[in-house]
Structures are given as structure tokens and as C-alpha cells.
From TrEMBL:
It comes from the Bacteria. This is MmcQ/YjbR family DNA-binding protein. GO terms for molecular function: DNA binding. It holds the Pfam family YjbR. Keywords: DNA-binding. InterPro entries: YjbR (IPR007351), YjbR-like_sf (IPR038056), YjbR/MT2646/Rv2570-like (IPR058532).
Length: 117
């Protein structure tokens, strides 16, 4: 997967914004002001995605490309290394899961604001 396709996929989701709060190379995708994906835009070797804790463990056991979140809460985040063995469709499924976890944690008011845009 290329960075532009990944970025476009994330930004097409309702209410998503992007910024670089940590440094100029670390791009964060947020919904309702909360991060659901983090990538290094210069290297674009991996992505950190939020994940249900039980599913996070399962994915780490099933896929070599998935490990505990680098510099993140390892219970709730996975780092996924981009490689040819992992289909883009699987990665995008995990992006959806991460987005949905964060979106569902938002207040009703924020969800209504996002839905009305």
C-alpha cells in the first residue's frame, strides 16, 4: 500500500482530520479529536492502530506483521508492518476497526456533529 492511498482511505471516513502533533514526520489521523492511526510519512514502513485488547493478542499470534504498539499502550494498540504478505484489504479492515473503536467512544454530541457534516 502506498501512503497516498492509505491517507485517502483514512480521510474518506466521516469526521476524520489529520495533523502532526508529535513531529513533522509522524502523521496522526483522528476522529473527534482522538487518534485512531499513526504513520511515519517519511518511511511509511508501519502503522499504529487501536485494537480491541482480545483481538490485538489474536492478531499478534496470527500475523508476523503485527506486534504490540510501538511507543503506545500495548494493550490497546498494534503496530502493523507493511509487507507483501499482508493484503491491503486486511490492513484496511483493521483501519476500519480502529476508527470504529474510537468513534464509538465519542460522546453523543460529537457523533451528532460528525454525522451532520
Amino acid at each position: 500500500m502506498e501512503i497516498l492511498a492509505f491517507r485517502s482511505y483514512c480521510l474518506d471516513k466521516p469526521g476524520v482530520t489529520e495533523d502532526t502533533p508529535f513531529d513533522e514526520d509522524t502523521l496522526c489521523f483522528k476522529v473527534g479529536g482522538k487518534i485512531f492511526a499513526i504513520v511515519d510519512i517519511t518511511k511509511f514502513e508501519s502503522v499504529n492502530l487501536k485494537c480491541d485488547p482480545e483481538q490485538a493478542i489474536e492478531l499478534r499470534e496470527m500475523y508476523e506483521a503485527v506486534s504490540p504498539g510501538y511507543h503506545m499502550n500495548k494493550k490497546h494498540w498494534n503496530t502493523i508492518v507493511f509487507n507483501s504478505d499482508l493484503p491491503d484489504s486486511k490492513l484496511l479492515q483493521w483501519v476500519d476497526h480502529s476508527y470504529n473503536l474510537v468513534y464509538n467512544s465519542l460522546t453523543k454530541r460529537l457523533k451528532l456533529e460528525i454525522a451532520s457534516k
